Amino acid sequence: MSPKANAPKWLNPREMKAWRSYIIASRRLLDALDSDLTGHDLSMADYEVLAQLSDAPDRRMRMSELAEIAMLSKSRLSHRMKVMEKAGWVKREECESDKRGYFAVMTEKGWKAILKAAPDHVDSVRNRFVDHLTVKDQEELAKIFDRVQSRLRDQYLDEA
Fold it and tell me: Which pTM was predicted?
């Protein structure tokens, strides 16, 4: 096999600019959103787990489903759950129909925590992101990232 056959397809200047702009902006945005939650003693990872549970029926979800939706490995979610259990925001319950499975369940304290943090978080998202975009920008970004995340989700499921 020739060395050329294994050569990477390098990014051209336009592709590199798009990639680097995305990486820098997304990291700065997530850091800023995370920082804006510190007054609530929540991280973005905590907030995302609580947000998913707050939308789930009875504020409970199978751990495996939560890991998939939050795009966390089962071990990372397990670690996150330990921290959140210690804070009193969530608890784990055995699944009666599948003794190997567990539910993540939001506690009343977790519900109060997300209710208190949500207005500040939404303001932060609006001020740091949404208000800098036109309606067309928002539609385009949604379309683009739906396509990217769908492809990544398919790859993630194939690897799991």
Answer: 0.81
